[in-house]
């Protein structure tokens, strides 16, 4: 039976980044991946600058496009807003190439990759025995980076406490004129779908177009119908090829704990996507790195590692997400008040959101007072 200090389940941004961080410390690490890399992964592929600027190596080889401007549309009643920065606000990647790049960097430093190994169960103890389709693997620590559905979290005993929302994305090829017209900027259309938005992310040779509901609602919403309507909004009347991908995104974190039985939850498994815009790559990478750092700094002490990881999340990601979740509710459920504010302060809000993407500011802790003040100013 193969034995390691750390077993990482999943080779996405969280898992691969954790592996790369561990690889610098000499801690024996294995990535257990159920598929063969590179593999397609449903994702808008928009990597914001706050995440890219912290990458420990150049990712230029897997960049599809870079965008220094973002267009945000709210409704026909409001002019669209454009923000621009000197650095790329959003970098477009295809997740198969992006994830594989990070994995390859980790392998260069000695990390083992086991492909086509699906974890079926785990025996917990002083060390954990992972029972995979290709045999057993032993490890003291497990980093669960296995996405929104996270079978590892279920095996380890977590109950579901995250808010998980649905999204639908199509990878489409359109006529040259439409592609050239729509590939100049990243585009967001707020309220293209109730309680959410539509997006048009230009890649190298195609568009990633989708719609998602980004806050909890009891109303049933037909994603396909809203996607079809959104194509009309974009002026797309002909599609040369189309591949549909439905997926879910956790937009609130787990409410109990992030470590138990020496299993560390990261990325979507922990529920760390941004609640307002549902961008998850940057926080997935950060949480993977922090889980690895906690294990390294603890000198492989289980209790210390768990406490360190929790503290790191509480100092960085979790406060942002908790505030973002409250803002998200007001943004999507109180559109009348939102539009009053945006009518007068739309550009300010757009610039503030862009600063968040750039990593130049955080969500305001006193957002209620700030929003109330802006509404009063707009009304009176």
Summarize the structure.
The chain is α/β, with parallel strands linked by helices and 380 residues long.
List the helices and strands and how they pair.
Layout: E1 2-9, H1 13-23, E2 29-32, E3 46-48, H2 49-52, E4 63-67, E5 69-73, E6 81-84, E7 90-93, H3 95-108, E8 112-114, E9 119-123, E10 128-132, E11 135-144, H4 151-156, E12 164-173, H5 176-182, E13 186-190, E14 196-202, E15 207-213, H6 223-234, E16 241-250, E17 259-260, E18 263-265, H7 267-270, H8 281-297, H9 302-315, H10 317-333, H11 335-358, H12 367-379
Helix pairs in contact: 1-3, 1-8, 8-9, 11-12
Q: Give me the CATH superfamily of the largest domain.
A: FAD/NAD(P)-binding domain
Low-confidence stretches: none
The coarse silhouette is globular
Oligomer: single chain
Strand content: 25-35%
Helix content: 25-40%
Major sheet characteristics: 8 strands, mixed
Q: Total strand count, please? A: 18
Your description of this structure?
This protein is of the alpha/beta class. It contains 12 helices and 18 strands. The protein has 3 domains: 180 residues, FAD/NAD(P)-binding domain (3-Layer(bba) Sandwich); 87 residues, D-Amino Acid Oxidase, Chain A, domain 2 (2-Layer Sandwich), CATH 3.30.9.10; 47 residues, no CATH class. 38% of the residues lie in helices and 26% in strands. The strands form 3 sheets. Strands 1, 2, 8, 9, 10, 11, 17 and 18 form an 8-stranded mixed β-sheet that branches. The chain is globular and about 60 Å long.
């Amino acid at each position: 039976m193969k034995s390691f200090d750390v077993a990482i389940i999943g080779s996405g941004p969280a898992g691969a980044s954790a592996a790369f961080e561990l690889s610098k410390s000499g801690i024996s690490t294995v990535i257990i991946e159920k598929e063969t890399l590179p593999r397609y992964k449903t994702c808008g592929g928009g990597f914001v600058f706050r995440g890219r600027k912290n990458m420990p190596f150049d990712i230029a080889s897997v960049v599809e496009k870079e965008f220094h401007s973002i267009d945000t549309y709210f409704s026909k009643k409001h002019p669209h807003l454009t923000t621009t920065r000197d650095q790329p606000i959003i970098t477009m990647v295809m997740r198969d190439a992006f994830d594989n790049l990070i994995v390859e960097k980790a392998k260069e430093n000695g990390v083992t990759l086991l492909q086509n190994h699906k974890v079926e169960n785990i025996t917990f103890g002083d060390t954990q025995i992972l029972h995979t389709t290709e045999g057993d693997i032993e490890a003291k620590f497990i980093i669960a980076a296995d996405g929104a559905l996270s079978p590892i979290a279920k095996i380890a005993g977590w109950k579901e406490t995250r808010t998980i929302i649905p999204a639908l994305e199509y990878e489409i090829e359109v006529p040259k004129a439409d592609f050239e017209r729509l590939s100049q900027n990243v585009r967001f259309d707020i309220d293209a779908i109730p309680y959410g938005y539509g997006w048009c992310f230009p890649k190298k040779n195609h568009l990633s177009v989708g719609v998602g509901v980004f806050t909890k609602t009891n109303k049933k919403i037909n994603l396909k119908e809203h996607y079809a309507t959104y194509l009309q909004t974009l002026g797309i009347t002909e599609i040369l090829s189309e591949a549909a991908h439905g997926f879910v995104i956790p937009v609130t974190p787990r409410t109990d704990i992030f470590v138990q039985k020496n299993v560390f939850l990261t990325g979507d498994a922990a529920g760390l996507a941004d609640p307002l815009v549902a961008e998850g790559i940057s926080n997935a990478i950060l949480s993977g790195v922090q889980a690895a750092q906690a294990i390294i700094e603890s000198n492989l002490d289980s209790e210390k590692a768990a406490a360190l990881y929790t503290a790191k999340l509480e100092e960085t990601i979790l406060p942002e997400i908790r505030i973002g979740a409250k803002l998200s509710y007001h943004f999507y459920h109180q559109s009348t008040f939102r539009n009053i504010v945006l009518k007068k302060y739309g550009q300010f809000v757009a610039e503030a959101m862009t600063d968040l993407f750039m990593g130049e500011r955080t969500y305001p802790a006193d957002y209620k007072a700030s929003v109330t003040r802006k509404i009063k100013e707009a009304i009176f």
